[in-house]
């Protein structure tokens, strides 16, 4: 199984997602590690076990063990951070004077180039809907030299993966429903 299996599993109503997934995995703007790390991290962020399994099958042939674990680390740490910073932001600054008190060592030492980890964190944050984290990570990757096109491609990738996860969830939930 693999990305090809995901495309095969997508029904007619998700034809655009199938086409978009096919084109994003042939990305030329992101290097191979950035692309596949983003695919792993965003698939993990969706929580769709079928998508995670299929993406990981291909990614394990491409990414080093360190990069693979860093991508999963980005999804995991952003799950925590996105809830925290999004919620703190919703409270209109009333708690901005409070110490965060959350361990985030992986951000300082992810085991891959910082700009790759930050790119994956930004993509995951876009799925999780935290504009504070999206903006923060985007600033870091741009300062590290990634182009606007590369950043935008990571955002497109995240949106495609979120849509594919939704379509697969619908397919799995409606398997026994006949129309």
UniProtKB/TrEMBL annotation:
By what name is this protein known?
Alkyl hydroperoxide reductase AhpD
One Pfam family matching this protein:
CMD
- What EC number(s) has UniProt assigned to this enzyme? 1.11.1.28
Question: What does the subunit section of this Swiss-Prot or TrEMBL entry state?
Answer: Homotrimer.
**One GO MF term attached to the UniProt entry:** peroxiredoxin activity
Catalysed conversion reaction:
N(6)-[(R)-dihydrolipoyl]-L-lysyl-[lipoyl-carrier protein] + a hydroperoxide = N(6)-[(R)-lipoyl]-L-lysyl-[lipoyl-carrier protein] + an alcohol + H2O
Among InterPro entries, the record links this protein to: AhpD, AhpD-like, AhpD_core, CMD-like
Query: Which HAMAP family has this protein been placed in?
Result: AhpD (MF_01676)
Report the enzyme's class at the first EC level. oxidoreductase
Q: Which family does it belong to?
A: Belongs to the AhpD family.
What organism, scientifically named, is this protein from? Mycolicibacterium brumae
Q: What Gene Ontology terms for biological process does this UniProt record contain?
A: cell redox homeostasis; response to oxidative stress
| Carboxymuconolactone decarboxylase-like domain boundaries | 97-175
Q: Which purpose does this protein serve, as stated in its record?
A: Antioxidant protein with alkyl hydroperoxidase activity. Required for the reduction of the AhpC active site cysteine residues and for the regeneration of the AhpC enzyme activity.
